[in-house]
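How it folds:
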Amino acid sequence: MIPLWFKVFIISMLPISELRGSIPFGIANSMPLWHVWIISIIGNMIPVPFILLFLQPIEKFFRRWKIFDYVIDKIFDYTRRKTRKSIERWETLSLILFVAIPLPVTGAWTGSLAAYLFGLDFKKSLICIFFGIILASFIVTIAIMEGIKLFGG
């Protein structure tokens, strides 16, 4: 049998659910709130340095083919052209808030991809994503706890 803490940990590492899924799962399964919170933050943070480090070799691998090289150039050009000025001015706050918003396609995985696409510094990206994860964990926990109060759970 898989321990509950390990399930919470794995859910927090997954790209779609992240801690937005692991915190409600842990709370719903009567795991102590502080355990859920800490395990979810750690689990959500673990993939981040690997994503940031391995996107460049993956990009280089795919750029060997003209079609992928063309598509990657288009993605980078479009992304940087649309948001360059706001990112340059607000890169730290933008990345933190992007990761903190507890909605689908925001979070640590997508924040890591965004940091890579914009060419942000590795250490700065790690710190910003970590603070975004912390904020997201507070938002999700408060929303879950208020929902429990509201619906009498």
